[in-house]
Design a protein that fits this description.
By secondary structure, the chain is mainly α. It is built from four helices and two strands. A two-stranded antiparallel ribbon has the order 1-2. A hairpin with a 2-residue loop joins strand 1 and strand 2.
Length: 81
Amino acid sequence: MDNDRVDLVLQYVLAAAGERDGGEREVTATQLVKYAYLADVAHAERNGGATFTAAPWTFTGQGPQAPELEARIAPLARRIG
């Protein structure tokens, strides 16, 4: 997993949420993981299957999971405020 790229995706999602007009501006950890997965899927479609974050995705009944990626959320949130 590329931690720098994971952090970029997470920061982008948080910044985009902060710019929403009039709506809910909070993003949960679960939503962050799912948005990161969608970013990886979009990147893979355009890059021969190579994901942007190289996160080790697994799938459960609750959707995509990447514990290593999720573990970066709290420290990143503290760093960027």
